Amino acid sequence: MNYRMVAFVLGRIFAIEAGLMLFPLICAMLYGEWYLLPAFLLPAALLAVLGFITSHKTPKNTTIFARDGLAIVALVWVLMSAFGALPFVISGEIPSFIDAFFETVSGFTTTGSTILTDVEALSHGTLYWRSFSHWVGGMGVLVFAMAVLPMTDGRAMHLMRAEIPGPTVGKISSKLSDSAKILYAIYFAMTFVEVVLLCAGGMPLFDSLIHTFGTAGTGGFSNKGLSVGAYNNPYFEIVIGVFMLLFGINFNLYY
Q1: Are the C-beta atoms of 176 and 158 separated by less than 8 Å?
Q2: What does the alpha-carbon distance between residue 73 and residue 86 come to, in Å, rounded to a whole number?
Q3: Which CA distances in Å does 62 have to 9, 68, 200, 248?
Q4: Cα separation of 251 and 187, whole Å?
């Protein structure tokens, strides 16, 4: 196994997760939740340092075999969830690391299970991170990594095979990196359209983002205890229902 290359890819993923934590941080600042700054800044700084240590220098041997791909995918999901749980713990909104880890795993894997009994008691920044994990996990963080990281098809194919369920892996472009970029372009476009449609119906922008993230990941996290039923608005239910179906279709078909 090429341990150095495994560490290199993990380091790049750590750097990506550090960048992703800036979004809920900005959300917390917009809502004046300054007490949340350490909850996101500390894990982001830790991830950035780890990412720099492990990936600042490209290994001489950049070969990734099947076992390397399997190890990377397994470690990415576990470690991303472990670091992703830290904002909940540091903020004190989910003080138990086990509970926070469960919530984060449920988010990144788009499972949608929760340990929370009063979701509306959470801060805006924490709610954003909780639902944003659905959006990140909806396409798979390694698919995102293949879109933004320089990686040859020979190396990326083993990661794609380990990440994508099913016996075969299909490409919609001659290069896997281009395929990943196309898929994410579709993902971004559909996310944007749903947010616009929900806002057009009168849903607040923050709520529109939260419910769109839950729809895109098909996990269903909400900032309301009754989810979309709290609005008692058929328009919202129709829009979200339609996009649940659209996001559940293989994106290769759209292309």
Answers
A1: no
A2: 21
A3: 10, 11, 48, 35
A4: 8
Cβ 115 vs Cβ 94: under 8 Å: yes
Contact present, 224 and 230 (Cβ < 8 Å) = yes
- Which DSSP string corresponds to 123-137? -HHHHHHHHHHHHHH
Two structure tokens written together for 247: 């996001």
Report the alpha-carbon distance of residue 89 to residue 100 in Å, rounded: 7
Residues 147 and 128: their CA atoms lie apart, in Å, by 24
Q: Are 39 and 123 in contact (CB under 8 A)?
A: no
Query: Do residues 187 and 138 lie in contact, with contact meaning Cβ atoms separated by under 8 Å?
Result: yes
For 151-189, write each residue's pLDDT tens digit. Answer: 544 555 556 555 555 444 555 565 666 777 888 889 999
Yes or no: say if 252 and 170 are a contact pair by the CB < 8 Å rule: yes
C-alpha–C-alpha distance, residues 39 and 123, integer Å: 12
- Residue 232 Ramachandran class (φ > 0 left, ψ -120 to 50 alpha, else beta): left
Domain coordinates of the chain in residue numbers? 3-254
Q: Give the closest residue to 130 by CA, choosing from 77, 174, 181, 94.
A: 94
- Tokens, residue 189: 């476009």
Distance, CA of 106 to CA of 95 (rounded, Å): 17
By the 8 A CB rule, do 2 and 59 touch?
yes
Instruction: Output the pTM of the full model.
Output: 0.89
pLDDT at site 65: 75
